[in-house]
Amino acid sequence: MLHYSCDMCKRPIDICCEPRHVVKIDVFQAIDDSSDECGGSDDEFDHLDDVQDLLQRIDEQELEMLEEEVTRTLRFDLCDECRRTFLKNPLGGKSSKSLNFSNN
Ligand SMILES: [Zn+2]
């Protein structure tokens, strides 16, 4: 039987009597289409050819490692309580102020 524990409070989650929540976060570099406005030159096309060449030469395993550096997927199991806490403050900043957001 699979055993889960909450990644925030480390408490074991008993999935037969309480909900388990999964948080998935993809972290990746944004590709901004408007970036050629800021001084993009034709040189970039040469670079693209180089990258294509490179991609064709490296094997799949290396490619995975390469992607790993650019894209990170984080996955957490949360208990019901921590899910609520997480949603209030997903980026984990100082929560003292956000708790009174009704006063804003
Ligand atoms: Zn928890």
Residue runs with pLDDT of under 50 for 5 or more positions: none
Q: pLDDT average, as an integer?
A: 78
- How big is the Rg? 21 Å
Largest sheet: 2 strands, antiparallel
3D structure, described in words:
With 104 residues, this protein is of the alpha+beta class. The protein has one domain. It is built from four helices and four strands. Strands 1-2 form a two-stranded antiparallel sheet. It is elongated, with a radius of gyration of 21 Å. Bound molecules: zinc ion (ZN).
Indicate the topology.
Elements: E1 4-5, E2 12-13, E3 20-27, H1 43-57, H2 60-70, E4 72-79, H3 80-88, H4 95-98
Antiparallel strand pairs: 1-2, 3-4
Residues 6, 8-9, 11, 78-79, 81-82 line the site of zinc ion.
Give a short overview.
The protein has helices spanning 43-57, 60-70, 80-88, 95-98; strands spanning 4-5, 12-13, 20-27, 72-79. The protein has 104 residues and is of the alpha+beta class. The longest helix is centred in the middle third of the chain and has 15 residues, at 43-57.
Please tag this protein with its features.
104 residues, alpha+beta, 4 strands, elongated, binds zinc ion
